[in-house]
Amino acid sequence: MPRIRVEVDGETYEDDVEPRLLLVHYLRERLGKVGTPVGCDTTNCGACTVLLDGLSAKSCSVLAVQADGRSVTTVEGLSLDGAGDHPLQRAFHREHALQCGYCTPGMIIASLDLLRDNPDPSEAEVREGLEGNLCRCTGYQNIVRAVRGAAAEMRTREVAP
Amino acid sequence: MTEIGRARLRSEDARLVTGRTRWTDNLTPAGTLHVAYLRSPHAHARIDRVDVEAAKGRPNVVAVLSGADLAAEQGALPCAWQVTEDMRLPAHPPMAVDEVRYAGEPVACVVARDRYSAVDALEDIDVDYTPLPVVVDMERAVQDGADLVHGDMGTNESYTWVFEQGDMDAAMRDAPVLLERRFVQQRLIPTAMEPRAVLCEPDGEDFTLHSATQIPHILRLMLSVVTEIPEHRIRVVAPDVGGGFGSKLQVYGEEVLALLLARRLGRPVKWTESRSEGNMAVHHGRDQIQRVALAADRDGRVRGLKVELLADMGAYLMLVTPGVPLLGAFMFPGIYKMDAYSFSCTGVFTNKTPTDAYRGAGRPEATFAIERLMDDLAAELGVDPIEVRRRNWITHEEFPYDSIAGLTYDTGNYEAATDKALALFGYDELRAEQDERRERRDPVQLGIGVSTYTEMCGLAPSRVLGSLAYGAGGWEHASVRVLPSGKVEVVTGSSAHGQGHETAWAQIASDRLGVPFEDVKVLHGDTAVAPKGMDTYGSRSLAVGGVALFRACDKVVEKARTIAAHLLEASEDDLEFGGGRFSVKGVEEAGLTIQEVTQAAFAAHNLPDGVEPSLDSDVTHDPENFSFPHGTHLCAVEVDTETGFTKIREYVAVDDVGTVVNPMIVEGQVHGGLAQGIAQALYEEAVYDADGNLTTTTMADYLLPSAADLPTFTTDRTETPAAGNPLGVKGVGEAGTIASTPAVVNAIVDALRPFGVRDVPMPCTPERVWTALREGGAR
């Protein structure tokens, strides 16, 4: 089995993994990083989205071995003190952008990537930008509002995404 | 500021936005074994042989079992709703034994040390099938000589349920206007974002089962009935649950099997489904063929409505499968007065995944039919669709109103909701633009759709459920415990999975008891913690469970009043309670806070005779009536007549859900409901081919709308308190879904009427719109 070395949410892990092990299963079942859920098996829903070297990736369609030597950020790593203090986390709470919350980790991570590309997206740009992340509860309206609200805060505070 | 009516941010969010969640699949106790299921590739086949020997030899495999191996203990999955005495109820084994009747039915399972090994070993299970004739079309299934889903039954009809009120012959005779329509409610896949998952941990004779379920209490009872493991030996926990929409209002074979496998193997057993197996094996929703006839006078007054349904049960009857269309039976007349109404529904077996409750369950189907008919009636008469509704709806002076379908609508104000919606929508301006576009033959036409709905929810008065032969009651339980320190624990039998109970229930308790919101903790979703409950479905949580809590709080206050009066040496009648403090009328300084009373109740040094120590209460609330939210939804669509593409331009929803506890949560429920109703109108359909293969097994094929597919909604409310409960609340969970589907389709048809189009089947994809245009004689 290949040995991989991955930095996840600031900690470095070294593990022997089956070549076919999906990154999301590595995170959840080997590292106990269960904050990133699985919603489908065809990369459509985006619930499992993480940042891989700063770019969003659906971790159900990435092999753990592909993450070797790279860094992974999950929703658990967004706030160092675990208090949910990232502007996006706060905005999702403030704008009621989640109900069951299952899509939320992926939605927040995908939004981070979106705001890195476009720090001041229009409503339409947020909607298009989050096309790969499905939510069944909210109808998206409050998610769009949360992302734009967080964007405004991040612009003024220059929070590095 | 009073807590009721306040847009409190949710207590639940902190863990959900940081990934500190408690989904069932997150739990993996030491020694957990993982289950994978082999599912039938055939829609209908005899099982001749299942050979599991090779699979047993695979590495890490602990057990491989076929349906036959478990036949003696697995029992049959329950159906709790015997809708007619002669309803045909076929046995439904959790794993098929002799015959499979839908593609995706479990046939065998592997239990292994990890999930990859379990899935690998499925490859080595060898099953011999003899394919049998497949029944996919409901209308063919009920013809003489049709192939049979259940050969020994001699028919594909499960039941026929009828309701009649008024003189239909008189209503139809010489009716100046008679509209006859055939509407198809396509099959839908509920698609909660969290796939199903179940974990069962054995502990001697006891079992703890975590499941992604909406119904921990019902599940516990049913697991006991099915497996004959005594109920008190089973604890069911619904931890964080990632949405349900009816799909987790079920007793699934995989839940029963988790219990049986844990008992057999003596170790924790876990199963988490993949989305593609879930699309085949989670119950589906809708799937009705509706034949409807509406008779009216020349002035638009409705005389009578006749409804004949075929409802697709799928291959088996699950928990409430046969009852779902009945929940619609009472709603076809909607908000309208009429002289006669008749309803008949035949439940039909097909070789497809069983259907059951999906958000709205019966009422969206009914609302779709009547609201489509009202728009058609308006077009037939050349009258504005709002005006036709005004001529028929129950006016606000007429409540309480006994509907033709036998319900008593307690309150409502359809005029107010409609006026508000029209103003927000800019109805007249949009009509003017529509005329303009028609005149200049714009390739992009504008259509306006109306939906003035009501629905029955807050399931339900136990007496009514009994009269409909449902297997249980519709009460809900709450208890309030004021702890010695003055903090409050609220226990509710309603089990949240996204609805925000932890916030809204704390608001109610805070409001009633006068304690800080932060001092209230809401406990739910665990039969060991919340021992009594009827769970969450049918927009019942607040209207039944919230009211139970309201009453439980009042009961605590009454007990506290007795103690406070004793301590203050005052008469109970002389005490006022407000802001969490009892005070003697006219003597403001003489008083005790509820926390002080709690300490006295805890110490029990000086209690009135006959008063038990501690401050707590239990209430089981059984509502006297359903709640009847209503509202007016208006949708404007732009339809490109060259491509058939539909774009929603404006969507206005004005809903009346009575008193609102948390307007932010209510608005969120409406948004999500709209998204699902619009999705039925435009995007979603579970498709089977002629051989009974589901061709929409993935999210790539089954089109859930994304943010890019939906508009920004304009939502508002009118507030007519429900008369049936002291909080004045009505359900809101399903209203958006119920109202929106016909609003969208009405808008599309409205855009295309000049082209001779009278209907577009759902989902109204560009291809279907384009085809309808061609068939309508597009110019």
TrEMBL record, chain A:
Matches recorded under Pfam families: Fer2, Fer2_2
Q: In which pathway does it act?
A: Alkaloid degradation; nicotine degradation
Q: Where is the 2Fe-2S ferredoxin-type domain?
A: 2-78
Q: Which UniProt keywords apply?
A: 2Fe-2S, Iron, Iron-sulfur, Metal-binding, Oxidoreductase
Supply the CDD domains for this chain. fer2
Q: Which domain of life is it from?
A: Bacteria
Q: Output the PROSITE patterns linked to this UniProt entry.
A: 2FE2S_FER_2
Q: Which GO terms describe its molecular function?
A: 2 iron, 2 sulfur cluster binding; metal ion binding; oxidoreductase activity
Matches recorded under SUPFAM superfamilies: 2Fe-2S ferredoxin-like, CO dehydrogenase ISP C-domain like
**Which PANTHER family does this UniProt record tie to the protein?**
OXIDOREDUCTASE WITH IRON-SULFUR SUBUNIT
Put simply, this protein is called (2Fe-2S)-binding protein
Please give the organism: Actinomadura harenae
From TrEMBL, chain B:
Write down the SMART domains for this protein, in alphabetical order.
Ald_Xan_dh_C
Q: Which residues form a coiled coil?
A: none
Q: What InterPro entries does UniProt report for this protein, alphabetically?
A: Ald_Oxase/Xan_DH_a/b, Ald_Oxase/Xan_DH_a/b_sf, Ald_Oxase/xanthine_DH-like, AldOxase/xan_DH_MoCoBD1, AldOxase/xan_DH_MoCoBD2, AldOxase/xan_DH_Mopterin-bd_sf
Record GO terms (molecular function): iron ion binding; oxidoreductase activity
Q: Which UniProt keywords apply?
A: Molybdenum, Oxidoreductase
- Superkingdom in the source lineage: Bacteria
Record-annotated membrane-spanning stretches: none
Where is the Aldehyde oxidase/xanthine dehydrogenase a/b hammerhead domain positioned along the sequence?
18-133
The UniProt record lists the keyword tRNA processing: no
What is the protein's name according to its record?
Answer: Xanthine dehydrogenase family protein molybdopterin-binding subunit
